[in-house]
Amino acid sequence: MLAKLDKPAPHAFLFVAPSGFGKTEIATQWANQKPEITAWYTIEAGDSARDVLFHIIEGLRKIKPDFCSWAEDLPETNLDTSKVTQSFSNELMELGPEVRIVFDNMGDLTGAEVENLNQAWLSNAPTNVKTLTIRRTTPKSSFTYAANLGMVTYFTAKDLRFTDHEISALLKSRGLESKGAEVKLALTSTDGWPAGTQMLLKLFLEKGNNAEYLRDLPQSEEKIIEATLDSFSAADRDLLFSIALLDDVTESELVKLNLGTDAAIRLRNMAIDGAFISVRNYGEEVFTINSLLLQHIRKVLLRDYDGVKERALRALEIVKESDPYRAFELFLLAGEVENAENFIITNIRRLLFSGKKLEVNRFVEMVASSLKFDEERKLIFFAYLEATSGNLDEAESKLLRYMNQFGSMTSADPMRIGAPADIQTTENAIDFLKGRLSSTIRSGLGVPEGDRSLGDLEFARQLVILQMVASAAFLLEDEVNLKTALEMATQVRINATDPSNSIYLPSIKALYSLGTGELDVARENARLAIISSLKQKPSGIFVPFPAAYCLAEVHREKGELEEALAMCDEYIKLASKFAITPWLIALMAKKALILSHTGRGSLALNEITQARELVPVQKYSSEISRIIDEHELLIRVALADTERIKELLFRMPQTDTTIAFLSAYEAMQSPTRAKAILSTYRENTIRNKINKALISTEIYKDQPSLAKEHLRTAINLGIDNGYFQIFLLQTPTVKSLIVDLASGEPTIFLEQLAKKIRAHSQSALSLGKLANHSLTKRELDILRRLSTGLPITQIAANLHISNNTIKSHLKSVYRKLKVDSRQTAVTKAQELALL
After folding, report:
1. pLDDT of residue 415
2. CB-CB neighbours of 767 under 10 Å
3. In the chain, how long is the greatest CA-to-CA distance?
4. CB within 8 A of 629, min separation 6: which ones?
5. Tens digit of pLDDT for each residue in 221-274?
6. By three-state DSSP, how is residue 75 classified?
């Protein structure tokens, strides 16, 4: 940040953010760079225009003791701000080539005279002055003139958030590198807020990664959050309190709450500034308050019983149809216990398929009574809730306890009808969440029929199981079972108006369409599932992660990379929150691939490394690692890391992805056998057809007319089906042919491709530098042993090579990684995910 403040005078730096974003710390470090020419003025509420001038003049008198000697004679009121400012500016010009002034807490200045002084200063500021202004709210004064001259740099909360790199450095300083991925996931609720990050990091060190302590923060932490709330304007603070009983709020809901026509604009501006509001847009904007702030506001509201009752009744009208669990809590807040009981019983179906374990626990007896569950069924019910909310150890423990207490089930007992299905559904969820994808498919397709008396509740359960089966089949590239899951899902006899039809079924359809390469159909179904979920507010395993993944992939393939990253980031947070590991890993791997497209190779590989850290082989099936391998393979191709590519292909199972790579490699290595190799290549999906045409283009590069014929085939398929990014990932030869084709046969699509290819030349050069890191198998062996801490002589002995030979290999490793020591080589290898 200090580097961004290294601009020549005249210049004004304006920091506008709530408390806790490090504004004062930045200002202090900036002032300490040149304390001898810096004046610091901390505004006190009620300071007059004379006070402002006098305090700044006092600060500047350390440079020149008799500076503005006329200041003592300034009148207390009726100050001629224009004349005084001109005199002040003229004398400032004489203090030297650069003078620095820090205005701390500038937002506390009020009054017409002060505002006139500020505008006069903006119009007459001398050319040797650099100012740094700290504010908690957006200034009313106009900076247009200075901004037009390029003399103003404006920083908001969004600019002051901790980045992933800064959080990594922070973890390293606390000795937490080994738990980097785990801690970062624990910090997601802070949204990069520096004070919140430090707060949760402190609690993590004291109590571990336990979400429970967040509900009862120590008083010192609560005071930090209270100070942050106090830094908002009164109007914005009131707005936050008015929506805090809702988990999130749409623009139309703001209107229903009678919060004024500008409420959405104010929330949108907070989101743009990064001030504790996030916004999603799926046809209608959805605003969400930062979870730490929201939790604190709710605690404050509860201190005023009459006030919170009135707010709860207003919020009830918003969420009754969409969020029964929040509605239940609002009924209780409003003191309407009987209405709460009646309401939740009529919403049992949505309750059971929510994944909101903590909310369900509060009224489980009511639900169990309504469904006539005995102690046995309640135990299964709890196991199911634990599994669908990501609590696998608890789920398995409850299932084991059930089998020990009650043994096997028989459908002859009316009280036990449907119990075998409940047990197998729970086991299916556990299989999926532990990455046992093949087992998920086998058990999911064989789950017995449940209790028909539950009607749509039973059918919704079937759709949930089939969504897990479809997810597992998709992630394994198992086309046959993915199609089977879709066919079975379309035959489920659920009511057409049931919400499950607009979430789970479209999600399965999106997976199948993406698997067959129909991007537009996949996008249409994914959007339907996500928009419907915003209304129904599902939780845990019922969040439409498959739809989010499909939408991110469609955005990526169409070249809409920022939209793809935003989708990944949003659902990575949710998957982490609910411990939905397969989709968490898939979304992180997808994010890594997208980052590589934007030229951020190191960040991409770091994301891959973090994903691997989250799924240790001792706890998760190796099938889940295949998802990471597939995405790393595509990233390594861009880095031309042939050794790593071979390693990945060797251990990955035979799927369309690996077959495409192996076929291309074989065909290019044996041109005489290319035709025979390609004749066996499956064209079962649109993507495979495009891949085959592109492989043929590469193979026949020495026959330009034939190569272009195959390229035209690929291009036409891409135009018809919305593919774009796939062409940017090709070899230089194919990309060169695309540019040639665009110049001879200009179409909008080809011209866009050619423009992107030319624009990527610089990032390709950057990736080329990384490609120089490509290590031989022997060098990789040595590098990986370096990380164990063994002496060089021991490593040489283990590899049966001489000390001179290993030294020669080490020199080559250091040269390729551009490092000069063992430790930096290991660090660089970790950054590149080589270890």
Report:
1. 44
2. 17
3. 101
4. 648, 651, 652
5. 888 888 888 888 888 899 999 999 988 888 888 988 888 888 999 898 888 877
6. coil
